[in-house]
Design goal:
Elements lengths: L3 E5 L2 E2 L6 H16 L7 E4 L1 H9 L6 H18 L2 E2 L5 E2 L1 E7 L9 E5 L5 H9 L2 H18 L6 H14 L9 H19 L7 H15 L3 H9 L8 E7 L10 E6 L11 E6 L5 H4 L5 E2 L2 H7 L6 H4 L1 H18 L3 E8 L2 E9 L4 H13 L5 H7 L2 H7 L3 E2 L6 E5 L1 E4 L2 E7 L2 H9 L4 E5 L7 H6 L2 E4 L7 H9 L3 E3 L4 E4 L4 E4 L2 E4 L3 E5 L4 E4 L4 E2 L5 H13 L3 E5 L3 H9 L5 E5 L7 H12 L3 H26 L4 E4 L13 H11 L3 H11 L11 H6 L1 H22 L5 E5 L5 H22 L6 E6 L2 H5 L1 H4 L5 E5 H9 L7 H9 L16 H15 L4 E5 L6 H10 L3 E4 L4 H12 L1
Parallel strand pairs: 4-5, 17-18, 18-19, 19-20, 27-28, 27-34, 28-29, 29-30, 30-31, 31-32, 32-33, 33-34
Antiparallel strand pairs: 1-2, 1-3, 3-8, 6-7, 6-8, 9-10, 9-12, 10-11, 12-13, 14-26, 15-25, 16-20, 17-24, 21-22, 22-23, 24-25
The structure holds adenosine-5'-diphosphate (ADP) and magnesium ion (MG) (2 copies).
One magnesium ion binds next to loops.
Amino acid sequence: AQYVYRFGGGVSDGGAGDRNLLGGKGANLAEMAGIGLPVPPGFTITTEMCTRYYDEGETFPDSVRVEVAAGIAHIEGVTGKRFGDAADPLLVSVRSGARVSMPGMMDTVLNLGLNDETVVGLAAKAGDERFAWDSYRRFIQMYSDVVLGLDHGAFEEALEIAKEDRGYTLDTEMSADDWKGLVAEYKAVVEREWNKPFPQDVHDQLWGATAAVFGSWHSERARVYRRLNHISGDWGTAVNVQAMVFGNMGDTSATGVAFTRDPSTGDNAHYGEFLINAQGEDVVAGIRTPQYLTRAARETAGAKAASMEEAMPETFAELAKVFRLLEDHYRDMQDIEFTVERGKLWMLQTRTGKRTAKAALKIAVDMASEGLIAEEEAVARVDPAALDQLLHPTLDPDAQRDVLTKGLPASPGAASGAAVFDSDTAERRANDGEAVILVRIETSPEDIHGMHAARGILTARGGMTSHAAVVARGMGRPCVSGAGMLSIDMKARVMRIGSREIAEGETVTIDGATGEVMAGAVPTVQPELAGDFGTLMVWADKVRRLRIRANAETPADCRTARDFGAEGVGLCRTEHMFFDAARITAVRQMILAADEKGRRAALDKLLPEQRADFTEIFEVMAGLPVTIRLLDPPLHEFLPHEEDEFAEVAAAAGVDVETLKRRAAELHEFNPMLGHRGCRLGVTYPEIYEMQARAIFEAACDVAAKSGAAVVPEVMIPLVATKRELELMKAVVDKAAEAVFAEKDRRLDYLVGTMIELPRAALKAGEIADAAAFFSFGTNDLTQTTLGVSRDDAGRFLTTYVDKGIYATDPFVSIDVEGVGELIEIAATRGRATRPGIKLGICGEHGGDPASIRFCEGLGLDYVSASPYRVPIARLAAAQAAL
Ligand code: ADP
Ligand code: MG
Ligand code: MG
């Protein structure tokens, strides 16, 4: 194998495509040299050599010694200097460089090739003694640290004392003689700490540094970094040996780092810092305050020190040209390192620059508008998950934060408001115009009104898929869940976090993106939904095949969904409409009724309310499809649980407390998730579904009569396991439809379909499709029932399961493609066999998850339905899945 690849001086043995072999740094140095940029000549020892070096007990084969000698000869040929030559010595850097950048993890040695003799030659040749001795002392310190493993503290201390003795504050005040004196001290430190003199043989230096760079691959910090970032330990690092260029040769020399565009805003402006008369890491090390690249940036910051544009106008113009060239070549924003040696610009590194979500969006859109990349490429480049950050208000990054504790970042966005500890109080205070944060130990369906009224939700218990988290995401409310340090004293109306106490009504702030909980108000900044975001969405929609709908049950949610581009409602959960304070009494009377007659009397009161709900939703959705799921939860969810509520509820419902308690006890279930719910309610009490169907068709007819817009209601029966269940329920719905059409003297198209959320339904989908015009995969329940895992209880063990690799990701966040996915595939195939063209979609949390959306695209489903705030994410993810 070839282990050494040269670059510079008109030669490039490798290129950007050789990242795995040459590491990112080496591959890009070769690439830059290849396109004619000024790159100091050098060579790369491959990552394969690193692996072999470890396989062979940390030794170098003879063949590589020969190749390295040829590499050195290459550099000597280009520079005209000789390695170890006393008169005109070649100095090199020995730089690490893995496949992926591991910032700050790996080692680099600069100025290698200096010794007591070559330093004299360097001084004479450069005509600058001070520069030569400055370089030598830098080399001794770096080599001692990286290669010899000596503590750098001793060197720093010696430099501090030297400066103090002379009354200096800055390194730049040190004279040639001062540096010379310090070099003598440094060598003494090495002898004392290492028991041997500092290595004078330049070849020993080179091999020592090469071994040390390979060695840094297995350093503790590199291992930890790799584990956290899922980088394989087998890859190894490459070593780059490169002729030194000197930014520390006086006032016409400099070193700097830059981005071709602003990595935090995405602005197409030169962005970076540089330092005159400095070397390598001085810019990032913070020894001196770096100067701005451009005059504009300097003026904005109100800084005095001249910018590069002002101090070195010609070199800066050259650098600006290089920026252009690099972007044209790589077609992406680059992060670069450069050095200026006596007015001459040298490029030392380039790589694709890291950026914020905001910058990623702007850069992708700008580059496509500039013609640098295609629109599809722009669509492909933006991470859909990152959009989430952009769709919600965020905390002002410059504001101060008094952090109380940290929970899980359950729903993005930030909010401030008065802490309140129950939902009724939240609603009352919000109605009075106050911003409130609902703080609960955990939330339940009874908290919906409080969650709606609150600006944000904070819970002490519950994971990323707890009730609070799921509902908050659906509503677009920021939420921090599982803040375990938090306790609430309902008597004293205070919450406690460690030693801190917050009384009800005091202001708190939550950051749903980080999970932070803060005392007091922290200012927020609003998202920008037009502009670049709008443009990218238009491009995404051009390539997208899947339709995107929203899970929405209120007119407000439907409006949000439409604003975000939803093409229909994929899941309207009717039970949320029953929790409304004005209706729950009628709901309870219905539950408490002794017979069908009593139930019908109560349902008659609910009918106009339900009809009004649907009317508003149909109006907002103006002709788009709306899937309405008939009542799903077990009835006891609507009854009180607390002792002190019974009397009040009994009085309102017109029964005595004993009757109420008896009925509540009758309805109690050991496992409500698998209990009397879904279509089982409709099978036992058909009048409930009949009322709901009637409300739907009356509303649809009314809206059609008023606006002429053809609403197509899609009536969905939940928790079906058998064809017979669906047939019975469909008959109820059809009968209601016929009755309404006769009364209103108007016919409408409508569909009756089912959720597929039980494994049996998926397996028997071929039969069920006889009665179903559509399937909507209820992936939340389908995951629970397929895995046999209750999502309300999964928090206790699911993280361990993911850590141990049992599930690759949380199956409630991203579809378990192997298991649940196979059931969906079976159901889709069998359903289509019975009813070609059967409409297929998914609803549930997975509808907004990019990986799950990719899976749905693969199956050719018709649509996914996501919570309103995730609609843009789903649009982008669906576009990427189609590319
Ligand atoms: P890192 O990966 O930690 O950035 P580098 O190998 O890029 O490490 O080098 C560290 C610093 O030294 C950078 O600022 C780089 O520009 C500088 N440097 C590396 N090689 C040379 C060289 N041949 N001449 C001048 N400066 C160099
Ligand atoms: Mg670097
Ligand atoms: Mg369900």
